[in-house]
Amino acid sequence: MGHTYVDAIFSNPNDSSKRAIVSGLVDTGATFSMIPKEVANKLGIKPEGKTAVRTAKGVMMLEYAVVKTKIDGEESVFKTLINPVINKSLIGVIVLEALGFKVNPITKKLEKHEIEQYQAIVC
Known about the structure:
By secondary structure, this protein is mostly beta strands. It has helices spanning 37-43, 93-99; strands at 5-12, 15-26, 33-36, 49-55, 58-71, 74-83, 90-91, 101-104, 109-112. It is globular and about 35 Å long.
């Protein structure tokens, strides 16, 4: 299977001049994207709160903030976790789905796909 990495631009949604280009690990098992604390500091991002997150090491309390995320020309703002321990960026499934990407496990690259939106039919 292997790992998929993608270049992503994280930026401060209130000051687009503050940005960081990172090689992020695409993690389809992660709900939210995550950036290291040092990247958040570089962007001038102030945490908005803390949330419990289940990780391979157990449950951790991590800060989060709204961060603009851009991948392959597609961008939006997302709740993003800030990790003071790990110095790697992760791209979570919410970002992938919202920006219209899927992972090709053979090429280990992101591909564009149609965003799916279903409405429940109430009888």
